[in-house]
Fold each of these.
Amino acid sequence: MAGLEIPTWDPETALLIGTILLEAIVLYVGYGGLERLFGPYLMKLLIGGEANAR
Amino acid sequence: MLDSLLGGLGILETSPEMLALFVGFGLVVGVLFGFFGMGGSFLVTPALLMLDYPAPVAVGSGMAFVFGTAVIATLKHHDLGQVDYKLGAIMITGTTIGIEAGRASVYYLESLGLAGGIISVAYVVLLGGVGAMVTRDALNSDGGGGVDHEAADRDLDEYEIPEIAKTIQQTVRIPPMVTLRGDVRVSAWVITAVAFATGLLSGFLGVGGGFIRMPAMIYAIGVPVPVAVGTDLFEIVFSGGLGSYLYGQGGGVDLGIVAPLLFGSALGARIGSAATAVVDADGIKVYFGGMLLIGAIAVGIGEIGSYIGNSTLELLGLVLVIGAAVVVAFAILYTTVSSLRQTRRQATTTAD
């Protein structure tokens, strides 16, 4: 067993993880916006006619 | 500038075919995660291992993917008020030590040349065990495994504490005691022990650990289901973030894998989550259990193929693991659209 390791500051790795965090936030906001914009149209397309029938 | 940044992070080194494969696989994994509330991340690390990525890259990238997915899901649960930050903060401590112990084990086994084999075997046992448990519960059709979507809509005070949690709360009374959401009072040591055990698993296998941590929070700590789900996700943001950072320092996180997976899974999770409002999860849970069992067999076949140097067996394992996930994801989408159409037909008939 290699023992416990205290994480050391590494700007390149921090940038890598920060990029993933940023991507996740952008995707949450972006897909949320797209859902509001195109959701009703897509539902209509998928089930045909009035989507709010359910 | 953007090219050099993306190139430096490794995303431009992935071929367009692989990017498309990862986006598609992410979409499938996202649908499963959004619908069942767990399980999607299980498939990423074994699939990467079968694609011949080194064990630290497969586990590290799998963990970074879990981190990104957890960030998105926590934002949603925070909006619904289902995150207990006190419970989350205590669990983070235990999980951090557990993850580090698990991660150190992977690098130690890698130095002995045993990491790929042992991780695959652990996956076979874990996928097989959880798959068998979920299938049995689904066949008995009284819930269990995954998120109880109806339960998630009830008030927190309406939840009954499971008997086993009551026993633990009454017998383990080592101070400090903490009060959690839903008026649950439990020893901080119980929370820390649960956190360490699941953190160890996370660090070793690159999974979020939610499929064990969530039932552990419900049955060992006694928190209401929605709080267990929300807090688990909040906790995975930290554990997954730290785990990804540590793996990233060792070159184990490949953004060329994580970014397209996340791009697909964020969309898939929205679709899967919306499908829960339409489809009865119990009906599909049996497919989910079956998918985990097939996943276990696939990892086993792939590992035998790799051991005896038979590339056809390795390919068969990969096709099985991805195929099983694709079939279940399509079953969810098909059932959702069919249910919606049926509901609409009934509504139209009633209106007539």
Note: Residues 69 and 345 of chain B are 36 Å apart (CA to CA).
Amino acid sequence: MPELSPFEARLAAAVRGFADGADTRVDAAEVASKAIGRRRFGAFTSLGLPLPLPSWIVLLLGLLLLALVGSTMLGGSRGEDRLAVAPSASPATTERPAPSPTSMPATDGKGDEVVSGTETQVQLSRGVVTATSAMNDRRVSGTGTFRIGVDGYDQVSSEWGTLRLENTAGAWEGSCTGATWDDGSRSVVACWLVGSGGYAGYTYYRIHRSMTGRTATFDVEGVIFPGSPPNLTDPEVP
Amino acid sequence: MAATGDSVAFARIVAAYHADMVRVAYVVSGGSQDLADDAVQAAWAVAWRKLGSLRDPERLKPWLITVAANEARQLCRRQRRTALVELHVDTLTAEGPDPADGATILDLERAMLNLSPDDRALLALRYEAGLDSSQIGALAGRPASTVRWRLSRLIARLRKELADA
């Protein structure tokens, strides 16, 4: 820790002194068991049902088998669909899965398009965020570099800066504004980007947002169109 | 090993880091042992689920401590009304603080109780866990400059409150 001012040194001592009041004794095996148990037993534990996991698995498999047999006996041809049971999501997974770029069909990469995908932050250093965009349009997939400033208030922050997104065929560059809240875990940022290289003459307007509390992966949606970003200083704007 | 689901290895990690996590959660909770215990237990459940996604073992301790701080913040938010009442009583019974430059550690501890859980989390991560702004920012997904700005604003506010009182 770098050298602290006298006031900050006393503050640090106060924080540590306050923490000394905590009872830190622990039965590690019990804490670990509870933590693991939450995952294994999930809802059953919250229902106060102390059955061990194997019994529940046997019971659930039995019910599943019964349901499948019943469905088949009733002659439902749709039962065949149900037989193709995909592995269920782990009960530990509580986050909403990010929309994959494959959740929207890939575009032909030409002309105007509606695009979507995800962006994953890979590095954050001195206010510069490097991220990778995986979109359903190859023109806007690639590596992005955000240079962002933040004006923080008690509950929220406004963000502003620039984004350059590039790949082998060209680049997009422009300005972004947005807001974050909930300690930065939720945010919406919109960017107007102008194409260059292979994308010259095109504009990419995009919004990235995190509404799920995830901080390193964002949902991205946007549009690509031939033309320039709107000019709000145009005297003909109504 | 714990990352791949070895419960014995996981218990060893609990033994190694539980105390550090409780101390931070205790600060965030404003001195509630029950809340700190609940927060850290919840943090261990998160750790068990997500340990496999942690690529750098050296980041384990700061990551665990940050998870505990976040769980404590969330529990505090749910219990905010109760906490405010309790803090109000503390404030009424507190002795008048000295000006900032002469503020004692006891004065500062009292002032901390009037902060939000978010602010206490920042202080705990910085001064109890010893994380710097870059580490806090990286774990919280925010720029280090934002963390520094919040911290400096918080320190200035505490100085002012202690000086004005």
Note: Residues 38-59, 70-102 of chain A have pLDDT under 50 and may be disordered.
